[in-house]
Amino acid sequence: MLALFFIGALISCKKNEINNSKDFEKYLEDEMKSQNVPALSALIFKGESILFEGHYGQANIESDIALESTHHFLMASVSKTITATALLQLYEDGLFGLDDPINDYLSFTVNGPGETTPITFKMLLTHTSGIADGPALDGQYYYGSDSPVALAYFLENYLVPGGEFYSATENYHDIEPGTDVEYSNVGNALIGVLVEQISGINFNAYCKANIFIPMGMTHTTWRLDEAIGTVVMPYNYSGGEYEAIGHYTFTDYPNGGLHSTTNDMFKFLSAIAQNGSYGGVELLKSTTVEAMTTLQIPDLDDETGLHFFIMNRDNELWGHDGGEQGVATIMGYNKSTKVGAIILCNQGEANLDKVLEEAYLLGLKL
């Protein structure tokens, strides 16, 4: 009986192995069912070649809209890679150094309570600034419209004593900058302000001119009112029912408010995978990309680059993931094989780590 069981187990494993696109589509169907995901978009690439692309389920259940390749997903924290890229383009222009204090470039002063160690650009890019995500963020969600609050106004009033949203105990961690890792959405939003104040251009306009348009990312936007076509509805799943959350944005949008598609994010991630260039357009220099995907604070953390992280150690995948109300996203690639994947879905409790791994492993076979 033991021998028969062993043979049966081997057959079962073989049946579940993903060897081709058809197997992967069945796997995605099973994952969507088991994780209660209404819609999922997946793309696998190598270099500039798309190896697999699929769009499944419903972008909007109530309106019975089937998901299409041009439908926008909220990207959640995957957005941070775009924000970091905008800042690092200015770094490449020689406008600041990564170890420079950010206060030398801001119109307001940012210091943790009682701290004298200056916060640097590198600290913001490695989540070691000590800036915390306080409860004031909860009041900055806007449903059905873009936030009416200016980014710089919010950040100044959040980070500077006496500000409308300031709290010494809630808005900063009790750590010296550069000595510990504390993931910071607000720290990333502050990068957006730095882009504005160093370039003299609105952050949204800067990204359009220097990232989206050059890369041909025609279905990518920071603002709801600029979205072209269908925006995928985010959902909660509870008690066997889907609940539409509604489309929303937040004031600190550079840390997670991007709307995009797998096709557009492929162009961006392909450029990163190819040392900074896609379609003959240089997004970043190769030395900058190398810095983004090199461990920057090994004494504090063994997964952190410059707003890129090691997402899967076994397969050496660098990238980022994201989770917001009604949305889960992930993307990653291998620096040597230049194979990568982007997975987007509209259910915030979904775990896409294994899906990314299976997508990458299939990419090696295609």
Short description, anyone?
The protein is α+β, with helices and mostly antiparallel strands. Helix content is 32%, strand content 19%. The strands form five sheets. It has a seven-stranded antiparallel beta sheet with strand order 3-2-1-15-14-13-12, sandwiched between helices. It has a two-stranded antiparallel sheet with strand order 4-9.
Strand/helix succession:
HHEEEEHHEHHHEEEEHEEHEEEEH
Report the CATH C-level class: Alpha Beta
- Mind telling me the CATH superfamily name? DD-peptidase/beta-lactamase superfamily
CATH fold field value: Beta-lactamase
* Oligomeric nature of the chains: single chain
Report the span from N to C terminus. 38 Å
Radius of gyration: 21 Å
Largest sheet: 7 strands, antiparallel
Report on the structure:
It contains ten helices and 15 strands. It has 366 residues and is an alpha+beta fold. The longest helix is centred in the N-terminal third of the chain and has 15 residues, at 2-16. Strands 3-2-1-15-14-13-12 form a seven-stranded antiparallel sheet, sandwiched between helices. A two-stranded antiparallel ribbon has the order 4-9. Strands 5-8 form a two-stranded antiparallel ribbon. The two termini are 38 Å apart. The protein is 32% helix and 19% strand. It has one domain (19-365): Beta-lactamase (3-Layer(aba) Sandwich), CATH 3.40.710.10. The protein is globular.
